[in-house]
Each structure stands twice: as structure tokens, then as C-alpha cells.
Amino acid sequence: MPLNITRVAYACDSIDMLADRFAGRAAISDRFELATRYLPKRHAEMAGGSIYWIVKHKLVGRSPILGFGEAEGGRAAIILQPKLILVQARPKRAHQGWRYLEGGDVPPDLGDAAGGIDELPPHLVGELASMGLI
Question: For the range 69-77, what are the long-range contacts, defined as Cβ-Cβ under 8 Å and sequence gap of 24 or more?
Fold first, then answer.
């Protein structure tokens, strides 16, 4: 099972803001490069994994990792698909940088849940998650 990482969605106060960020990137390119100071030590284990985004102390979505590269200024780039896949919200404390997320701790995608929750607008999914209903 691939290794995943978590990261705070900086400057995103809602799932809508995060979804808009990815929609904007998808319109420009088929990839989204996230610059970070250091290449994750366990990056070889992340093939097929995802970055799980934290908004308001909850894991709310994920973006598949395509690979790794170099960014400006000697930084590392985590190359992502420019899409946000909503997951069943799960509490997660905010942190700086990224943290590893093992396979057993990964929340399921909302598309895997019954009832078509993944078809709801992101802001409504955020409200339902904040009330603990999904």
C-alpha cells in the first residue's frame, strides 16, 4: 500500500476555497507543483499515494501524487494531479510542513460512500462534515 502525506491547505478557510484553487490549476495545466524545502525521505514509497489536505483541523480531501522533481531555489517539488478528491472528514491537528499517513489511517473517498455524497457542492460537504454527519 502506498504511503501518503498530510499537509495544511494554507490560506484556505473552507473546502470551497481549496476546490477553487485546484479548479484554477486544472484550467492551466495537467499538473500542480507544490514546492517544499526538503524532499520527503520516504518519497520512493509514495508512488501511487496522495497528499491529504487539512482544512480547519479536518482531513477533507486528497490529491494524487504523480512524482517528485526540482523547484526554484534548490527546493523540491511534489508533483500532483490538479484535482481534489473529497474524503470522509476526519479530525487532524494542524502542523507545519507535511507528515506521513500510513495506509490504515487513510479516510475513504466520498465517492466510495453510498448516497452520492461526492456529487454535492464542496461547501455543503464542508458544512455536513463540520456537523459530524459525514
Answer: 69/33, 71/33, 71/35, 71/36, 72/35, 75/35, 75/36, 75/37, 76/35, 76/36, 76/37, 76/38, 76/39, 77/33, 77/34, 77/35, 77/36
Number of residues that this document lists for the chain: 134
Under the banding of pLDDT at 50, 70 and 90, the label for residue 89 is confident
Q: Residue 22: which H helix or E strand, with range?
A: helix 15-28
The pLDDT tens digits for 46-58 are: 988 999 999 999 9
Q: What's the grid cell of residue 54?
A: 487539512
What is the Cα 14 distance to its own chain's centre? 13
Q: Which of 3, 7, 12 is nearest to 62 (CA)?
A: 7
Q: Rounded distance, CA 27 to CA 75, Å?
A: 25
Query: What pLDDT, in 10s, does the model give residues 102-123?
Result: 878 899 888 755 456 666 677 7
Core vs surface per residue 53-87: b (16+ CB within 10 A) or e: bbbbebbbbbbbbbebeeeeeeebbbebbbbbbbb
